[in-house]
């Protein structure tokens, strides 16, 4: 969803659209899984939190209060979720490359997608650095007046570079990445029936080669509004 991203034309309308969706699922959803990058940037200090996203956090709180269990897997944009949303809203924060979970009697592996499959050396280095407690303490000592504009500007440049390739070119580039990611996941959890990932910004569903498992990539909410629903028998991609 990348809430707060500077490349989104109308951030308030974008947030309201997300909140309307969350309000509509409150009546029927037993569980909600957010697979990372819900926020374009977030750093949670010990005593203060960044401004913004009030409606989104409120919608999550209403959903949690209605009895829906919420699990938020961190992505590469919202790595620094610690205990604030966990304690205030009552959701589970999972900072893991892949999460194996039983859902309505089926075996799932959920992943943001940035830490499975092939990764460039520079990305692996940055990921380790961002998760280093020593680096996090040093980063937290810098005034947010500098860190927040820097992080949001970096994200905007990265997104602009990705958009230049075009959807079809991105899909061709993504195929071997998804194949390698699925192979890694199935090796770790061979009983998996469903793999669900975010991160890649292109919604798709396909069978996992050589297995009976099914892969779902969620797409994104910066260009569309796709999400996955599992009813205990089938998983489908839907949109609003």
Using brief descriptors, characterize the structure shown.
alpha/beta; globular
Describe the structure.
- The protein is globular.
- The model has no long low-confidence stretch (mean pLDDT 92).
- It has a 5-stranded mixed β-sheet with strand order 4-5-6-8-7, with no helix packed on it.
- 39% of the residues lie in helices and 19% in strands.
- It contains 7 helices and 10 strands.
- Helix 1 runs parallel beside helix 2.
Strand order, sheet with most strands? 4-5-6-8-7
Unreliable stretches: none
Helix-strand string: HEHEHEEEHHHHEEEEE
Shape, per Cα inertia axes = globular
Rg is 18 Å
- Secondary structure tally: strands: 10
* Total of helices: 7
What helical percentage do the residues reach? 25-40%
Strand content: 15-25%
Short description:
The protein is an alpha/beta fold and 240 residues long. The protein is 39% helix and 19% strand.
Outline the secondary-structure elements.
Elements: H1 11-25, E1 31-34, H2 54-65, E2 69-73, H3 84-89, E3 92-94, E4 99-103, E5 106-111, H4 121-130, H5 133-140, H6 144-163, H7 167-188, E6 194-197, E7 204-207, E8 214-217, E9 226-230, E10 235-239
Parallel strand pairs: 1-2, 2-3, 5-6, 6-8
Antiparallel strand pairs: 4-5, 7-8, 9-10
Helix pairs in contact: 1-2
């Amino acid at each position: 969803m990348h809430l707060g991203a500077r490349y989104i034309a109308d951030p308030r309308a974008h947030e309201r659209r997300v909140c309307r969706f969350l309000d509509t699922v409150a009546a029927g959803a037993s569980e909600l899984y957010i697979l990372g990058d819900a926020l374009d940037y977030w750093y949670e200090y010990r005593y203060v939190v960044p401004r913004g996203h009030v409606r989104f956090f409120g919608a999550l709180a209403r959903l949690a209060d209605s009895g829906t269990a919420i699990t938020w897997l961190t992505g590469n944009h919202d790595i620094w979720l610690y205990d604030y949303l966990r304690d205030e809203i009552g959701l589970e924060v999972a900072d893991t490359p892949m999460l194996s979970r039983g859902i309505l009697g089926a075996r799932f592996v959920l992943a943001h997608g940035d830490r499975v499959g092939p990764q460039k050396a520079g990305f692996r280095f940055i990921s380790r650095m961002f998760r280093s407690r020593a680096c996090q303490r040093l980063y937290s000592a810098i005034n947010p007046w500098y860190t927040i504009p820097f992080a949001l500007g970096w994200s905007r440049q990265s997104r602009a570079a990705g958009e230049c390739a075009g959807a079809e070119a991105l899909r061709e580039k993504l195929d071997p990445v998804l194949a390698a990611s699925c192979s890694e996941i199935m090796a770790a959890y061979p009983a998996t029936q469903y793999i669900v990932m975010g991160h890649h910004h292109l919604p798709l569903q396909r069978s996992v080669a050589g297995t009976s498992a099914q892969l779902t990539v969620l797409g994104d909410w910066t260009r569309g509004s796709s999400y996955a629903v599992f009813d205990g028998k089938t998983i489908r991609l839907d949109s609003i």
